[in-house]
Amino acid sequence: MSILAVVLIVAAALALIALLAIEAPRRAARKRQRRERLASEAEGHRQEASAHASRAESLAPRAEAHRDEAARHLADAEQLEAQAERSKRFASRHESEADQREGELEQL
């Protein structure tokens, strides 16, 4: 092997080492920036999650109260429907009685 080849190989190796020495801090800086950005985003998401959880916690009792009120309204509605149905039957019966009495009245 000639001295020129050895010099070229050593020069290429030194250039590669220099390039790696320059690139390593850049890569570390990019990695650090990415970690900081991801940590910041994670913290933002945690804050949002906490806010939504707090809102859900405050809405749950109101939803339960509305659900209970709706159940009461449903029971009241069913009771009123039953009363209306009875009133319809009574009205029909009394209408028949009135027709019958008018028929008897006409025969007199």
Q: Would you mind describing this structure in some detail?
A:
The chain has one helix at residues 3-107. The protein is mainly α and 108 residues long. The chain is rod-shaped, with a radius of gyration of 45 Å. The chain is built from one helix and no strands.
Write the SSE topology.
Layout: H1 3-107
Question: What structural keywords apply?
Answer:
mainly alpha; single chain; 108 residues
In short:
It contains 1 helix and no strands. By secondary structure, it is mostly helical.
Specify the structural class.
Answer: mainly alpha
Q: Provide mean pLDDT, rounded.
A: 93
* Measured distance between first and last alpha carbons: 146 Å
- Sequence of secondary-structure elements: H
**Helix segment tally:** 1
Note the overall shape.
Answer: rod-shaped
